[in-house]
Amino acid sequence: MTFDELGLGPNVLQAVNDAGYTHPTPIQAQAIPSALEGRDVLGIAQTGTGKTASFTLPMIERLSKGRARARMPRSLILEPTRELAAQVAENFETYGKNQKLSMALLIGGVSFEEQTKKLDRGVDVLIATPGRLLDHFERGKVMLNGVQIFVIDEADRMLDMGFIPDIERICKLTPFTRQTLFFSATMPKEIQRLTEAFLQNPVRIEVARPASTTETVTQAVAQVPSLPKLKREALRSLIKSKDVKNGIIFCNRKRDVAILARSLEKHGFNAAPLHGDLDQNIRMKTLGEFRDGAIQLLVASDVAARGLDIPDVSHVFNYDIPTHAEDYVHRIGRTGRAGRSGEAYSLVSKQDTKYLVAIEELINKSLNRITIDGLGEDDAPTQSRKSSTAKKRETGPKSRKTPEKAKRPSKAAPKKQDTDDKPVVGLGDHVPAFLLRPTKLPKSRSLA
Ligand code: AMP
């Protein structure tokens, strides 16, 4: 099938052609004709399937006739995160370049004033995160009774983020006669209920996860200690042992994103954090630099990275194994895109076993076990064996360029020293106290 058969007009077809797409993806082939007819669509599809174009292309076509009125957007797209909203806006710019559609992006972290000005001029397409949209609504800056096309994207992620009450409220502010296009990667009960309440006789389209996700990604897990310092060290060894062009490192908590990114930087890696508490401008800048290759390693939380379209990521590292098995699939879906090969490694400590079991059940596959160089499963230290040598390995003098492997605790070291928290005397790092005493140099020998 080609794009010409879907019912799109010449301007949109030209833009699609310029984007280099020759064939519609399955969700595009099925959703576009129905959306053009004005039907409601329920798309069960995740990022990477081409779902964004499956709603932006027919929207551009349908909105090309008619004009926007002040503060009354003609269409509304809800996205769970600022990054996704910005990404959809980019799609509109690409595909709508031959049309004169006006667009506004209402996301947190950007000044209200600029956004209000745009709304005052009238917009054809409003792309928003739920919180910021409701802020504008409550200030009387936007009315939703002119919305003809309403898109809810990544509904299951909205559910995870607690946005469902906001979405229900927003939905009720739009006219009953609107067209609704609804997308979700999974269909939990709450989402099912939403679709029954808000969609009218929808065309249901379900597309399989992009086959490329698991088939072209080499996946493995490595047992690591749970003590954060040792876990970070294990990650560094793992990264060094792989040919990493660029990679995303996932943490389960925002706090750990920040700590890990800082630690990697301190150890000379080209890494930057991406999490929801960062200023919007910084997040966009970081993402841009990662895409351009100026940043090699992006340390991210699930929410920040969800759905991001970053082509050609060579590696994904799960610093923390995700507690929701679904997130594992989303995370590794960041690599091996569009048929390219990719590698995904997960660090697992003993208490994570139940999450690993759930993941293997979901993907119906047993993951390969590997050991990290110098960190055999048997001698993987655990929290109870926290040693002073390990401490020194983390905090020891930077100038000593000891290879990672050589810095491992020596198996030959006496047991007592291995469990003692005091500095080990006589193994090289100890400085005798008399050398640390302040001394006055005679003037003639001053170093200044
Ligand atoms: P999405 O699922 O919307 O995030 O799209 C994933 C990626 O696929 C994006 O980089 C799109 O630019 C790309 N894409 C969308 N439609 C097509 C198509 N028909 N052919 C090739 N690539 C596409």
Task: Walk me through what this model shows.
By secondary structure, this protein is of the alpha/beta class. It has 2 domains: 3-206, P-loop containing nucleotide triphosphate hydrolases (Rossmann fold, 3-Layer(aba) Sandwich); 217-383, P-loop containing nucleotide triphosphate hydrolases (Rossmann fold, 3-Layer(aba) Sandwich), CATH 3.40.50. Helix content is 39%, strand content 14%. It is built from 19 helices and 14 strands. The longest helix has 14 residues, at 82-95. The N and C termini lie far apart (78 Å). Residues 21, 23-25, 28, 47-53, 309, 311 line the site of adenosine monophosphate.
Entry summary:
Helix content is 39%, strand content 14%. It has 19 helices and 14 strands.
Task: Tell me the layout of helices and strands.
Elements (H helix, E strand, L loop, with lengths): L9 H9 L7 H11 L4 E4 L6 H13 L11 E4 L3 H14 L7 E4 L5 H10 L3 E4 L1 H9 L10 E4 L2 H6 L3 H10 L5 E6 L4 H10 L4 E4 L5 H4 L1 E7 L4 H14 L5 E4 L3 H13 L4 E4 L5 H13 L4 E4 L1 H4 L9 E4 L6 H8 L9 E7 L4 H11 L4 E3 L17 H8 L19 H5 L13 H4 L12
Parallel strand pairs: 1-6, 1-7, 2-4, 2-5, 3-4, 5-6, 8-13, 8-14, 9-11, 9-12, 10-11, 12-13
The protein binds adenosine monophosphate.
How would the global form be characterised? Answer: globular
Helix content: 25-40%
CATH architecture of the largest domain: 3-Layer(aba) Sandwich
Query: Mind telling me the CATH class of the largest domain?
Result: Alpha Beta
What do we call the CATH topology of the largest domain? Answer: Rossmann fold
User: How many domains would you count in the coordinates?
Assistant: 2
Mean pLDDT: 83
By DSSP (H or I, 4+ residues per run), the number of helices equals 19
In CATH terms, the superfamily of the largest domain is P-loop containing nucleotide triphosphate hydrolases
Q: Which parts are unreliable, with pLDDT below 50 for 5 consecutive residues or more? A: 377-430, 444-448
Largest sheet: 7 strands, parallel
> How many DSSP-defined strands?
14
Q: Kindly report how far apart the N and C termini lie.
A: 78 Å
